[in-house]
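Handout, page 2. Input:
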Amino acid sequence: MTAETHTPLLNEDDLRQIARWAAACAGRALPLFEAKAPDDSRPRAALLAIGSFAQGGKRSSALRKLAWAAGQSAREVGDPAASAAARAAMAAAGSAYTHPIATPHQVNHILGPAAYAAQAATLAADDPADVLDAEIRWAISQASPKVRQIIQRMPARAPSKGPFHALLYRLDTCLRT
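Output:
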């Protein structure tokens, strides 16, 4: 039996690519949170930290704490669109910790910031269907070829119940084509 060499599924450069896209998607929704909670800087701090990681900064426990703090903001804000925007920031900051294992759950971590941002915009919209389509198109247009390659290395999501899971599935499917 010969020893095989395996390339890790995700390396640090992959995580930085994911983080860059995640920060862009979540940043698009941030004004929806800040309009409802102008004195709460936790989601913005999480996005600044993941932006720093994406540009070559260290992945630290501070980044993880900022992600959790943005999640706390989502629970406290009391507005569905603002809550989804804060969750987008939380998921973006957490993207640096995507595990290098090929599971649909890890795909959710990659797609989460874009999905929460689209959900936030949809919840705030007068015409949710048009806004959802536009947000999905925007998120897909912002995904670099490298992000698409990373997603294609992961197992595809199966359709599942609920509007948020349908959104994850739609993003996943579109990014694979």
